[in-house]
Amino acid sequence: MEKVKIAILGFGNVGTGVWKILLENKKEIMKRSNYDIEVAKILVKDINKERDIALPREVLTDNIDDIINDESIKIVVELIGGRGEAKEYMIRAMKAKKHIVTANKLVIANWGKELFRIAKEENALFYYEASVAGGIPIIREINESLTANRIQQITGIINGTTNYVLSKMTIDGSGFNEALKEAQEKGYAEADPTSDIDGYDAVYKLAIMASLAYGTEVDHDCIYREGIRNISDIDIQYAKQFGYTIKLLAIAKEENNKLELRVHPTFIPSSHPMANVNDAFNAILIKGNAVGELMLYGKGAGALPTGSAVVGDIISILRNNVAPTEVKAANAKVDFKEVKKSNDNESEFYIRLDFKDKAGVLGDTAEIFGKNNVSIVSITQDVAHKTHSTLAFITHKSSEKNINNSLKKIVELESVNKVESIIRIESFN
Predict the structure, then answer these.
(1) Helices H, strands E: what count in the chain?
(2) Hey, which of 267, 281, 332, 369 would disulfide with 244, CB 3.0 to 4.6 Å?
(3) The domain 3-134+305-331 is classified under which CATH number: 3.40.50.460, 3.40.50.720, 3.10.450.50, 3.40.50.2300?
(4) 51-86 pLDDT, tens per residue?
(5) Which run of H or of E encompasses 233?
(6) What predicted TM-score, i.e. pTM, was given to this entire model?
(7) pLDDT tens across 374-389, in order?
(8) Residue 340 per-residue DSSP state
(9) What would be the CATH architecture of the domain defined by 138-300?
(10) CA atoms of 73 and 347, how far apart (whole Å)
C-alpha cells in the first residue's frame, strides 16, 4: 500500500486527538483511504517539553522550514490557531504544492477568499470541516448532501462553552460566574473566555456557513453579535415561566436576496429539540426548500471529535484527484447578497423592565408599545424575584426599530428605572 507523509502544525488538544485517531484507527483509515498515513513532522514551540504522549524525537521540529522544504510531505494539517502565523504557514505550504487541512475558523472567516484563490492557483486541496462544529460534518452537508436545496435558514448552537454555561444556569441554578469557572476547570473555556462568551467564536463560524450556504462573501463584521454576559438568573426563571429555554443561537436567513445574520441569546420553546441540547454539545438546524428541516447534533469541540473531522478531511484529500467542492465554490461566480441592518430584522421579543411601584406604569408602557406598532402577547409581574419590581413582556413579531423606539420612550417614564433585559425569541415557525 502506498504511503503518504503528512505534517501537523501544533500539538495541543486537537493535534493530540489527530495523533491518537491516526494511531488507534490505523487499519480502518488505511482501508478507507487506500493509503498508509505517516506523520513525518510535528511543528511545536518547544521540542523538549514533557508531553502525555510519547513522540519519536525525530518527528518533532520547531522550524517550519523543515516541513515546507520537505517535498515528501504532501499534506499539512494546521492546528496552531490564531491569525498571522497560521495564515502565513498555510500559504507557504500551498505554494510548496502541499494540500491543506485546517480547523482555524478565525483565518477562514477573515481570509478565506485569499486562501481559496491561492489553493486554486497552486492546485492545492483545501479542507476545513473542523473549523465550524467540531465533529459535526456541517461543511460537507452544505456542500454535498444539500446541494439540491435552496437553504432558507440555518439555526445553530455552535459554541460549546456558552451552551455549557447556559445549561448549568438553567438546569442546576448556577450563577454565571460559577458556571463559567466550572467550564474553565473542565477545559471547555479558555482562561480568557472573551471569544466564546461574547459571541465572536459563533460569529466566525456563522460567517463560514452562510458564505457556503448562500454563495456569497460574508464579512463577519456585518453580523449582529451579542454574548451571554448579561443573562441573569431572573431571565432564566422568566424564560421557564413563559415556556422557553435560553440558548446562544447563530441564525442565518435569506429573504428577497438579502441575508439576515445574527448571533445572540435567544428564547426558544422548551418543547423544541434544540432546547434539550445541553452541556458542551452543539446542534445545527437547517431548513431547505426540498428536504425540510434537518438537525445535526454532536460534540462541537474536544480533542477526539474535532480530530475526527480533521482526519476525515485528510482521507477526503487522499480520495480526491480533483479540486474539492469547497475550493470550486469559493472560486465560482459570487452572487453578492446584502446583509440586512439589525434595525430591519423582525422577531418576537422578551423585555424586562425595572420600575417604581406606582400606579399606571403598566398602562403607560402598553400605550407606548401600541403607538410604535408593538403588540404584546403576555405580561408577567414579579414572577422571578420578589426583591425587584419588574415587568416582563412577550411581544408579537416586531421590527427591532419599533422595539428600540418604544424603549427609548419607556425609559423616559418617571416610573421606569431601567430596561434590564431584551432577548429575542425564535419560535421556529
Answers:
(1) 16, 18
(2) 267
(3) 3.40.50.720
(4) 888 899 999 999 999 999 999 999 999 999 888 899
(5) helix 233-242
(6) 0.91
(7) 999 999 876 445 555 8
(8) P
(9) 2-Layer Sandwich (3.30)
(10) 51
